[in-house]
Amino acid sequence: MANATTDDVLVARFLLVRHGESKVMVDGVVGGLKTCSGLSDRGRDQAARLGSRFATGNENSIEIAYASPLPRALETTEIVLSSASLNLEINIHPNLEEFRLGEADGLTWEEVRARYDLGNFEQRDPFTPIIPGGDSRAGFRHRVAEALSEIADRHRGSTIFIGCHGGVISAAMATAFGLGVNQRHTELAPIVTSITELEILSSPTRGRRWMCRRYNDSVHLHGTGEDPRDHL
User: Fold this and answer.
1) Distance CA 31, CA 44 (A)
2) For the chain: N or C, fewer Cβ within 10 A?
3) Do the Cβ atoms of 67 and 80 come closer than 8 Å?
4) CA-CA distance, 37 to 192, in Å (whole number)?
5) Measuring CA to CA, which residue among 10, 7, 37 is closest to residue 23?
6) pLDDT in tens, 176-227
7) In this structure, are residues 77 and 67 in contact, taking their beta carbons and an 8 Å threshold?
8) Containing H/E element for 147?
9) Domain locations in the chain as residue ranges
10) Which residues lie below 8 Å from residue 126, measured CB to CB, with a gap of 6+?
11) Beta-sheet strands, E only, within the chain
12) Dihedral sign, Cα of residue 53, residue 56, residue 57, residue 63
């Protein structure tokens, strides 16, 4: 698909959606593959609201669906697609998993802070995991960017729903804006079930590049106390 006013061709459009409130969020527990047990009742309601938003037909038509392997992201994706009456296969991509915290999986965040030195996290070597068996900052950024590039090349020209995590969305945004792994002055905080829309475009004159169409769009949560505009 080419833009009418430029020579841009759409390589892929990503609708990156953070999962709804999860049980591990409520319990204050690190929720990796061993521990994550899906959404809370509130999280399921949030996902259904987003699905109803897609059902109106006022959003981009989803052609392909992907999800992180963690239950909270997969369940969110299932609810959104079901609520929007979209009969799409959900592709699980292991590299869309949230930042892996290795042996801390299942610990409370209080236990993590007591057991591991997390001070000055962003000023440390970005290639060294702080928690054994976990990701490094650079490694996490690389696997997310690689996953999105792989998905884009597999489904060229498509609009792709990605059910994922706040960390994955932050890594995607950092990739799109070319932020280095030592960048400490930019903080991203996508809220639950928000939509972040990123495109990869390509043209003979400008090459391959990222375009951010919107970030942290949570209009479907308006009036629930979770949309940032509720607090203005």
Assistant:
1) 17
2) C
3) no
4) 16
5) 37
6) 998 887 776 677 889 999 999 999 999 998 899 999 999 999 999 998 877 7
7) yes
8) helix 137-154
9) 9-225
10) 136, 137, 138, 181, 182
11) 9-18, 64-67, 90-92, 158-164, 195-203, 207-217
12) positive
Residues 61-108: pLDDT tens digits?
999 999 999 999 999 999 999 999 999 999 999 999 999 999 999 999
C-alpha–C-alpha distance, residues 216 and 209, integer Å: 21
| Residue 78 contacts residue 102 (beta carbons within 8 Å) | no
Contact 37, 71 (CB under 8 A): yes
Burial of 92 (0-12, 13-18, 19+ CB in 10 A): middle
In sequence order, the 6+-apart residues with CB closer than 8 A to the CB of 169 are 16, 18, 188, 190, 196
Amino acid occupying residue 215: Y
Query: Residues 115, 120, 121, 126: what is their CA dihedral angle, to the nearest 10 degrees?
Result: -130
Helix (H, G, I), strand (E, B) or coil at 55: helix
Q: Which one is the CATH code of 9-225: 3.40.50.1240, 3.40.50.300, 3.30.43.10, 3.90.1310.10? A: 3.40.50.1240
